[in-house]
């Protein structure tokens, strides 16, 4: 144990590890201190950054419960290879549990091998590995949300709006002309959200016509570009913009603002996430609604699970689906909910 204490104290000093609570007192490391290595796919993702902030907050709160927690963060800049190296670094640095937001959700094998060799459990989050990979080892977990639910809720928001405002069908042809802004191809939250949102509209008897779609990788600037192209193709025909996340909905709004569209000529915009900027846009009624991606709940679940895996305490209080999954529910956000 001595060796490990020195190792962790040295690590904290040399790598600028973020220490919380009692862990910050040198020489106070105990066997059951929780050293969390957090690896995430990209530093420029709005929702992930907010989730990371919640995780920091959560670990601060955890210390109040008398648990020693240290966290270290590594953003991979969109490279799985970089992330594999970072995970190795985190393990070498003495982390005893990992939280991993994969770059490529289909390529976790190297990380799983590293973790297993060193017996460090892994909590994957937000980017869900495929089921077979989750079965590679019994100390693999996933914390996230059900993609399908967010899509269905976005569709329900659209149904409610269309039913309550006949003006949304601007050309009065009895159909809603829509476009989609999609997240990264291959991400569980992209294709499933789109499918469920559109299915929900159809299931509720709304006639829809898809005009176009653009892949914007969760990114506001890319969404603006995609939207500018779609507007130049379809001009005033677009009545509804379904975006797989808030940043892309905001990028779409940016495009219309850039073209100086008057308010009455704008389509309805719907996002997902409920980021600070997203909620602000709903409050200002620029965005008709969004679906809240419960980052606080996800961070709490991750911290609880991390602590339980390291200390061996509290595992019985954690409700796992299929012994390794935790899914936090989404919720619908409209301007009246925010009032
Ligand atoms: C989604 C979220 C997106 C983006 C993505 C990254 O759940 O809605 O905004 O953050 O995760 O994996
Ligand atoms: Ca129409």
Question: Can you walk through the features of this model?
Answer:
The protein is an alpha/beta fold and 339 residues long. The protein folds into 2 domains: 179 residues, Response regulator (Rossmann fold), CATH 3.40.50.2300; 146 residues, Rossmann fold (3-Layer(aba) Sandwich). The protein has 12 helices and 13 strands. A 7-stranded mixed β-sheet has the order 1-3-2-4-5-6-12, with helices on both faces. A 4-stranded parallel β-sheet has the order 8-7-9-10, sandwiched between helices. Helix 7 links the parallel strand 7 and strand 8. Helix 3 packs parallel to helix 4, helix 6 runs parallel beside helix 7 and helix 8 crosses helix 9. 49% of the residues are buried. The structure holds beta-D-galactopyranose and calcium ion. Calcium ion binds next to strand 7.
Question: What is the secondary structure topology, with strand pairs?
Answer:
Blueprint: H1 2-15, E1 18-20, E2 34-40, H2 46-64, E3 69-75, H3 80-92, E4 97-100, H4 109-117, E5 122-125, H5 131-134, E6 140-144, H6 147-164, E7 176-182, H7 188-203, E8 208-215, H8 220-234, E9 240-243, H9 246-258, E10 268-270, H10 276-283, E11 290-292, H11 295-311, E12 325-327, E13 331-333, H12 335-338
Parallel strand pairs: 2-3, 2-4, 4-5, 5-6, 6-12, 7-8, 7-9, 9-10
Antiparallel strand pairs: 1-3, 11-13
Calcium ion is lined by residues 169, 171, 173, 175-177, 239.
């Amino acid at each position: 144990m001595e060796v490990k204490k020195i190792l962790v104290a040295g690590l904290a000093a040399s790598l600028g590890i973020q220490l919380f609570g009692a862990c910050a007192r040198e020489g106070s490391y105990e066997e059951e201190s929780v050293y969390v290595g957090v690896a995430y796919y990209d530093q420029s993702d709005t929702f992930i950054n907010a989730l990371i902030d919640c995780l920091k907050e959560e670990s601060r709160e955890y210390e109040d419960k008398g648990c020693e927690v240290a966290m270290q963060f590594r953003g991979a800049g969109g490279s799985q290879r970089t992330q594999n190296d970072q995970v190795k670094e985190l393990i070498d640095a003495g982390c005893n549990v990992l939280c991993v937001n994969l770059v490529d959700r289909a390529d976790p094998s190297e990380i799983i091998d590293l973790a297993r060799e060193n017996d460090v459990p892994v909590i994957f989050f937000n980017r869900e590995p495929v089921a077979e990979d989750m079965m590679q080892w019994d100390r693999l977990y996933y914390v996230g949300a059900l993609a399908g639910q967010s899509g269905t809720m976005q569709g329900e928001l659209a149904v409610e709006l269309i039913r309550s405002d006949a003006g949304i069908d601007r050309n009065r042809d009895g159909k809603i002309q829509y476009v989609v802004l999609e997240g990264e191809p291959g991400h569980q939250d992209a294709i499933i959200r789109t499918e469920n949102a559109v299915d929900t509209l159809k299931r509720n008897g709304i006639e829809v016509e898809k005009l176009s779609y653009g892949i914007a990788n969760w990114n506001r600037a890319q969404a603006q570009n995609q939207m500018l192209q779609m507007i130049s193709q379809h001009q005033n025909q677009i009545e509804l913009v379904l975006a797989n996340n808030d940043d892309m909905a905001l990028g779409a709004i940016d495009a219309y603002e850039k073209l100086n569209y008057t308010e009455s000529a704008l389509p309805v915009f719907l996002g997902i996430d409920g980021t600070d900027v997203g909620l602000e846009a709903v409050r200002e009624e620029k965005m008709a609604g969004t679906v809240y991606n419960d980052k606080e709940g996800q961070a709490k679940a991750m911290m609880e699970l991390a602590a339980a895996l390291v200390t061996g305490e509290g595992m019985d209080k954690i409700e796992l689906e299929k012994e390794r999954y935790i899914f936090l529910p989404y919720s619908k956000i409209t301007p009246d909910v925010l009032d």
